[in-house]
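Lay summary

Proteins are chains of building blocks that fold into shapes. Our project writes down both the chain and a compact code for its shape. Here are two examples, one after the other.
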Amino acid sequence: MLLEVHGVTKRYRRSPAPANDGVDLAVESGQVYGLLGHNGAGKTTLVNQVVGLLKPDSGSIQIAGRDVVADPGYARMVCSIQPQAQVPIDGLTPRQAIETLGRLRGAEARLVRVRADRLIEALGLSEWTGADGARLSGGVKRLVSFCMAAVVPGRLVILDEPTNDVDPVRRRLLWAQVRALADEGAAVLLVTHNVVEAERSVDRLAILDHGRVLTEGTPADLKSAVADDLRLELVLEPGTQVPAPPDFASSFTATGNRLVTTVPARMGGAAAAWAQDLRRAARIEEYSLAPATLEDAYVALVGAANTSDSTMEEPGVRAA
């Protein structure tokens, strides 16, 4: 294992609960490992300990068999990181920012230019390469930040919410580059609360809740918790009140006019008939019924009260 975390606990003075509470995980070279959890679950605190910016109160962290709690300088040498906050690049062009990081990591100038060119082309950034960083959109800055971490990747690449503000087209391009980092031999620790993207992109993942690892495994392993369920998604007609879920379904989670619930597989026919009745009554625009997803497993494990804003009921959506 390249990264091994055992029993890591971290408390902040002003918080009664630990930010990390006995966290265990392991990441191999060539693997994309997802660290999934709601805002405040303890993901970024853990990352800061892995790269030596925070010292755990207890537990151990090893990278390539070396104790990075005792030697945080080694962690910073072998890790490259895209932090959650935007990297300040005002006064630099994207190309200058990317190549400067590559040179700081000790790579030869020619190799850095070749690698920067490849990333810029792969992510569709060519039109902005000469622009002042202060004038870039949030999504473009986010992509530049990824390139700064990936231009000369360390043995462990940590990406903290890499797709924030990135448009859907370039988000797909970005995930391809995340996969390429692992295929080229790096261990990638991906920190996210976007469950849908995590399912498509990771080899293994851990779900954090209030600083603890609730479960760990492949996406298929985690979905096995809801393997006998189906995912029912409704799209409401504008201005329509939320229907009460049928007796055989769980409570709805809502995003705008989209409602999601799970139903037992044996009730699939009844669920389809119920949704068809709503459609005939012009209460919904459309519906879909499919096998349960990683998001459904996440909600079942963590509970709707702890899900990110993307799955919480929004203001103005009422049950009827």
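And here is the second example, written the same way.
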Amino acid sequence: MKYNSRNSRFTRVSFTLHQWILLASGFSILLLAVRMIVTGTIEFCFLPWNLLLAFVPYGITRLMERRIDWLENRWKRAGLLCLWLLFVPNSFYIITDLFHFTHVRSAPKWFDLLLIFSFAWNGIFFGIISLRRVELIVGLDRGPLFSIGLVFVVMWLNALGIYIGRYLRFNSWDVLTDPFNLAGEMADLLFNPIANWYAWGMTVAYAVFMSLLYLSIRKMGETFRV
């Protein structure tokens, strides 16, 4: 299989899109800086770190798009896709930072809602763009039906990753640094679904929501394409 600039439907618009999303991320960081200066607190200082983690899968797919020669190499392509799959849940995990909205009262509610939502939206957008790029890359090799099936599988894994990160407190790198505890928790989820109904309920609900969100934005992009 050969990749070239015409194979990537993001090539023509990625630079502009890249600039816009970086601008939006800068606005989120500016909001946090203003909050820290005005309130004299460091609350929500974790948000830029979470946004950086959300950026990683976007950065991986952007690199894949720019290095076509890597995509033509089966092993490099597989390695990059595995690395992307490991980090992409971080892009959607950031939505759960909205849980912190009711815990802090040192700034107006409207400001904190805007602050947290802006970080969450930018993180989700990083994930959506990177997933779209992977869908296009895989679609060129395996066909559109396989690629759209991959989208649903990835969204299910993302939802599971959100639960694992938020409630079990594992990170992406724990696959390497703490694999046995992570494997044990995963085995418990898989083999005791009734006892873990809460986890599976959250996973299914988030998987459906994120799939609908992705497909809606994808369809919107096709509708307004010039």
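What can we say about the second shape? The two ends are 29 Å apart (CA to CA).
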